[in-house]
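Tip: read the tokens left to right.
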């Protein structure tokens, strides 16, 4: 089955790509964040502790 990702509404060039993570107790959190595939755009939206935030800078983790 082919996955179709939504177009970024900020730049209309990239696609929003889902990112997953793990919770404090090791449970998988699917689609915790979405980031634009266009590196010049940088749009992102994420869920942290039940709060939705967007526009924070995206950086590579040192972990």
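Filled-in amino acids:
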């Amino acid at each position: 089955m082919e996955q179709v990702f939504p177009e970024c509404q900020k730049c209309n060039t990239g696609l929003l790509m889902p990112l997953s993570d793990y919770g404090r107790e090791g449970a998988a959190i699917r689609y915790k964040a979405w980031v634009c595939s266009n590196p010049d755009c940088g749009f992102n939206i994420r869920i942290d502790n039940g709060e939705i935030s967007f526009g924070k800078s995206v950086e590579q983790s040192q972990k």
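The mean pLDDT is 85. The two ends are 32 Å apart (CA to CA).
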